[in-house]
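Researcher: Let's do a round of design. I'm pasting the structure tokens now; please hold your answer until I've finished.
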């Protein structure tokens, strides 16, 4: 059975440790960190949501790795390929939903249509602080007990004048770091795993 990193490399996602067009052949390297958390549920019939579809590379990775999962993708860009086109049957276990992750109303409607109890949620969307925070606040309560919520590409939260940090919103890296205190002060966060540019929350069972 292939590792998640092997699958990620084959599917061409930059979540792999190697990628031909990123960082001199190096990917973000998220896949081994995900595997350490997810291997125990690899065979489970979970629901997985990824925000940020692109060309479907990561979606195909999740479908192959979680062979019993229902996989959903959300993006505000649509119609450029089979993986971000509404109504196209790109895969029997995959559903694409067009929407703005920074819109609270969108998430309320999404939950009505597709439910709660998400085994894994991955935010690889816009990376704007307002969108990251809005999405977390809307969807963390919808994660299943023992499930995971992941935020990628946290490096954009650094640097004065970053376009990803619009006025009126807190820096989303600071927002995530504040959750370290919540592990001790709240009952719903069991753990928070940090690696380079990646945070993986686990919901209490």
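Researcher: That's everything. Go ahead.
Model: Designed sequence:
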């Amino acid at each position: 059975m292939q590792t998640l990193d092997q699958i990620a490399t084959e599917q061409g996602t930059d979540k792999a440790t190697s990628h031909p067009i990123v960082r001199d052949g190096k990917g973000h390297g998220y896949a081994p960190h995900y595997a350490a958390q997810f291997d125990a549920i690899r065979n489970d019939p979970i629901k997985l949501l990824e925000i940020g579809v692109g060309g479907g590379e990561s979606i195909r990775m999740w479908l192959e790795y979680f062979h019993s999962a229902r996989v959903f993708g959300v993006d505000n860009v649509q119609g450029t390929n089979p993986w971000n086109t509404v109504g196209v049957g790109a895969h029997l276990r995959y559903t694409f939903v067009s929407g703005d992750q920074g819109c609270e109303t969108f998430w309320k409607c999404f939950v009505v249509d597709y439910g709660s109890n998400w085994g894994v949620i991955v935010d690889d969307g816009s990376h704007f602080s307002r969108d990251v925070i809005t999405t977390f606040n809307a969807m963390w309560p919808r994660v299943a007990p023992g499930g995971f919520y992941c935020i990628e590409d946290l490096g954009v939260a650094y640097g004065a004048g970053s376009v990803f940090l619009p006025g009126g919103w807190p820096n989303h890296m600071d927002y995530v770091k504040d959750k370290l205190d919540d592990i001790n002060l709240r009952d719903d966060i069991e753990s928070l795993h940090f690696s380079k540019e990646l945070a993986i929350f686990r919901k209490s069972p």
